[in-house]
Amino acid sequence: MGFLAEYYLWIKALHIISVIFWMAGMAYLPRLFVYHADSEPGSDKSETFKVMERRLFRGIINPAMIATLLFGLLMFAINPSLFGDHWMQAKLVLIVAMLGLHGMFSAWRKAFERDENKRPARFYRIVNEAPPTLVIFIVLLAVAKPF
Predict the structure, then answer these.
(1) Greatest Cα pair distance in the chain
(2) Does this model's pTM top 0.70?
(3) Could you read off the pLDDT of 45-72 as tens digits, one per residue?
(4) Interatomic CA distance for residues 12 and 55, integer angstroms
């Protein structure tokens, strides 16, 4: 991995950029769910939200998540000692939680696509707080390295 080591800071920068795009999408998608839950299934408004949600998920959120994971794994390949840091272990737990949330968002988007949403807009307003809350703690761990 000597070749990649000299590109570590570039890889780290690309990782951070990917995280920004992933989190922007993860923050916006549940807001779309709020509005979609308040629209009549099959209406023009509902159909518009389906297109917006699908394009956001497939065009931004999924590619940004994949890039985030790829660049993160490259950083581990260059510096495997990171696994031994307790702050990184805690960060990885929160990343797994974010990936779980990503999976739930995917399932909920598909339910909306099929006009099978059973949750009220209030539910999505509450869920809308989860990605920013997770990212706050992830960033604090990555920057402060408290353990």
Answers:
(1) 57
(2) yes
(3) 999 999 999 999 999 999 999 999 999 9
(4) 27
